[in-house]
Amino acid sequence: LAEMETMVDDVLAYLRGGREGERVEPVSVAALVRTVVSEHLEAGHAVEERGLDSAAEVEGRRVAIKRAITNLVGNALRHGAAPWVEVAAEP
Hints:
The protein is of the alpha+beta class. The protein contains three helices and four strands. The chain starts with a helix and ends with a strand.
């Protein structure tokens, strides 16, 4: 519910022409992927985690990045077979 509220607030801020909304901060991509995969597994979808590099961190908006990962996994489930997710930190 809090994530949905943040997304709505961000959209409203954007439409008003403002820069408000979710703060940019360090985000662990591996932790978000782990959360998204867990949510899909709980819903009965088969998604495999492979090599989640905990050093993979970015500066970004957590809710927006999680939404992007959720979309990617959802598309893999709809359009692929035996989806898996891997996170690697590279220069």
